[in-house]
Amino acid sequence: MADSLTIPVGGQPADRAGAARRGLSAFRPDLRRLLPWLLPVSVLLGWQISASFGVVSTRFMPAPLDVARAGWRAAETGELWTNLWVSFLRALTGFLIGGGIGLAFGLSNGLSRLSESLTDTTLQMVRNVPHLSLIPLVILWFGIDEGAKLFLVALGVFFPIYANTLHGIRSVDPQLIEMGRVYGMDRATLFWRVVLPGALPSIFVGLRYGLGIMWLTLIVAETISANSGLGYMAMQAREFMLVDVVVLAIVIYAALGKVADSLTRALERTCLAWNPAYRKT
Amino acid sequence: MTASALSFREPAVADRTPAAPETAQPAARRGVAVTLRRLAKSFDGGEPVLRGLDLHIPVGQFVAIVGRSGCGKSTLLRLILGLEAPSEGVVALNGDDRQPDGGTRRIMFQEPRLLPWARVLDNVAVGLGRDGSRARRRERAATVLGEVGLAAKAGNWPATLSGGQRQRVALARALVSRPALLALDEPLGALDALTRIEMQAMIERLWQDQRFTAILVTHDVSEAVALADRILVMEDGGISLDVTVDAPRPRRRGDPDLAALEGRILDQLLDARP
Fold first, then answer.
1. What integer best gives the mean pLDDT of chain B?
2. B3 and B97 fall within a common domain
3. Which of B178, B201, B235 marks a domain boundary?
4. Chain A residues lying within 8 Å of B116, measured CB to CB
5. Bridge partners (DSSP) listed for residue B41
6. Does the N terminus or the C terminus of chain A have fewer Cβ atoms within 10 A?
7. Would the ipTM clear 0.85, i.e. be above it?
8. Which residues from B are below 8 Å from A198, CB to CB?
9. Confidence band, pLDDT 50/70/90 cuts, at residue B101
10. A171, A173, A176, A179: which to substitute to probe chain B, counting the most B Cβ within 10 Å?
């Protein structure tokens, strides 16, 4: 504590200075925690006030309270939960498929030269195609069924996970691998104890990129062609000029993204506790 | 000290060279004798790194190999450990050139090479491979960790240790399987002077307790003189000087006889300038 370092020089002034500083530092932990929320809360407040006084037309930008009310209504009818669940399932399924394949290719190409020479060039070429540009083609192939959305999400998630897994395995310290060999580890032990833990920080980077792309792709896919889900809810609302519902959908997307990010952070802190860069401060 | 370090014979040291009987600790392995016959190594058909080397290291001897960079000393170490196959010639352990293994030969590298994602105790247990149950391995690892004075750090991550502490964990990992041969590839090169002296004393003590055969590759002639029974100077893929050091242990730093020996070896190394 900085307080204990304050040397009283004697007399009132030093004591008073110490007391003042103590008062500030007593506040500090709470202040610190609240500080990040200062800006968003003031923006919301300003938004609400300007909407209430008619500075901004609520036809185009509903007040925060209206959005909250729309959320309440949608929650009451159950419409919100159905759509949320549908979108969540799509995101999860697509992510698991794409991420799983990406991880598998990343591992096999990182561990085997043969596998790498067979597939890496092809994958790098396909990577340069923006996956959302495939939407017309995907609609032709799958219609506007679940298949189309899963395919796009999986494709989008695949590359960041693949590239980062591959990079992670490549960058495992060769000295540690040599140590493992010298100490008699067989291939499986070497993989589980040295290679995979060494690649994990990089795999997590891929995971976070993948999650971002997952939401982005899902929103676009659902907005363009769907008959359920959050994006569909937003598009329906636009048809009927329900701006509050449109904004509600956007806010929910943002919240979901934040939740996914927090979950990954928590996972990183657990799995990478050994790494000073990830340790909880 | 009046007698020359080279002729000084102390029973404690002299007894070690032939195999002294050991009664305690049935699990403990004894050292191993290493014999090299006409050992040669070249990489990809290039200039040979080792040229027909003959060497016999008796059981339990502490040998230091000094030489300039690129003289082949690290390659020699790797051949003795079985990490590389010789181009010609034979490496025999206790007269057997089939080299049976499994924890009998261990190496300590210049870097600690600890797994950053494993706790200190588990890092030491790496040295045991898959011998016995996990609980037994951890128990054994904890004992050896105590021997290097780090029992309190068993649950720490390696990232929280100092450089010297990490190298001690690496030493514990090398010794936990009670190896018959410990190869030390400049293990103290990256440590500060005081830590280095402490580590040398620790290595010496553990070697005296466990009686493994030790081969130390080093740039530091004073380190070789402080620790070794025998010093080999390598030059150009062969051994140019083979000195026995009979000074009693523990050796006192700054001893004039040892200093003279150090000077002689340094002269040999400097004369070898190409």
1. 84
2. yes
3. B178
4. 274-275
5. B50
6. C
7. no
8. 117
9. low
10. A179
Domain of residue B186, residue span: 1-17+53-83+93-104+179-274
Q: Using one digit for the tens of pLDDT, what is the confidence trace for B136-183?
A: 999 999 999 999 999 999 999 999 999 999 999 999 999 998 999 999
**Is residue B271 one of the residues assigned to a domain?**
yes
Task: Report the CATH fold assignment for A64-278.
Answer: MetI-like fold (1.10.3720)
pLDDT over 90 percentage in chain A = 42
* Radius of gyration of chain A, Cα coordinates, nearest whole angstrom: 26
- Which of B171, B120, B160, B115 has the alpha carbon at shortest distance from B142? B120
**Residue B205 counted as domain residue:** yes
Residues B100 and B204 in one domain: yes
Quick check: A280 contacting B, CB < 8 Å? no
CATH number, domain of B248, equals 3.40.50.300
Q: Is residue B30 part of a domain?
A: no
B117 touches chain A (CB under 8 A): yes
Record: contact B127-A185, CB cut-off 8 A: no
**Structure tokens given for A225:** 């062609």
B190 lies in the same domain as B269: yes
**What DSSP string runs through A125-188?**
HHHTS-GGGGHHHHHHHHTTSHHHHHHHHHHHHHHHHHHHHHHHHHTS-HHHHHHHHHTT--HH
Q: Report how far residue A151's alpha carbon sits from residue A98's, in angstroms, rounded to the nearest whole number.
A: 8
In contact, B219 and B186? CB cutoff 8 Å: yes
